Amino acid sequence: MKKKQILTKTLLTIVAGVLMILISFTGFQTILPTGEAFMPLAGVITVGIAVALGINISLIVTIISTIIMIVIGTADWVVLVDFIVILIVVGLILNKQVPLSTDLNHQQLLWLAIFTGLVQLFFISIFYGLIGLVLTGSPAGGLTFVQQIIPNALLTGLLYGFLVAPISLIFRWVARKALHVNDHHDDSNDGSSNNHGGSIIVDLSNQKNKKEDK
């Protein structure tokens, strides 16, 4: 049974990696003095993998897929750094992998989407501003880079805000079906139980309020 589950996870990760590469062909590129700046939209898949299969698997798939994207010319090293930053943020929000047997409600996924969208907005703007500052040696040069990249950063942040929650839900649902994980049962594949694998995202749902009242 374990071999079958490992094979299933491997197939899921391969499909996710292919999706990342295909998505890298979409989106627009911003022309900067240093060359093209690519929209890191494929990072939405990175978040979905992390939520469904864990940070470690997502990191491996992300690095391999992004290297392929760099080779075929649909990404650069900045995109790879961006994806790693996103994974760090997702890891901090989730604390550890949430077992597939544990339900993630819409409130939690909404927070995840908001945070990843904001991270994309600020990371892209600040990172390219620093690149401009280093290359030109002046704050004005850094500001010029920020002005040129801000449409890309805004659109990327908005797309993450809209897409992270549904993509994560879909990935998690597919993983649960493929691995035959039932609700409210321990998921031995994740190496943790429901009592230890929950999310640290603030849950403002009515159910939580009722529990606190008791």
Structure description:
- With 214 residues, the protein is mainly α.
- 70% of the residues lie in helices and 4% in strands.
- The chain has helices at 2-23, 43-53, 55-72, 77-94, 106-136, 139-179, 206-213, and strands spanning 29-32, 35-38.
- Strands 1-2 form a two-stranded antiparallel sheet.
- The model is unreliable at 184-208 (pLDDT under 50).
Helix content: 55-70%
Number of strands: 2
Q: Averaged pLDDT, please?
A: 82
How many helices does DSSP assign? 7
Q: In sequence order, what are the helices and strands, one letter per element?
A: HEEHHHHHH
Task: State the assembly state of the protein chains.
Answer: single chain
Report the end-to-end length measured between terminal Cα atoms: 41 Å
Amount of beta strand:
under 5%
> What topology, given as strand order, has the largest sheet?
1-2
The whole-angstrom Rg is 19 Å
Decide which structural class fits the backbone.
mainly alpha
Low confidence ranges: 184-208
The largest pleated sheet is described as: 2 strands, antiparallel
The coarse silhouette is: elongated
State the main characteristics.
4% strand, elongated, 2 strands, 214 residues, mainly alpha, 7 helices
Quick description:
The chain has 7 helices and 2 strands, in the order H-E-E-H-H-H-H-H-H.
Topology of helices and strands:
Elements: H1 2-23, E1 29-32, E2 35-38, H2 43-53, H3 55-72, H4 77-94, H5 106-136, H6 139-179, H7 206-213
Antiparallel strand pairs: 1-2
Helix pairs in contact: 1-2, 1-3, 2-3, 2-4, 2-6, 3-4, 4-5, 5-6
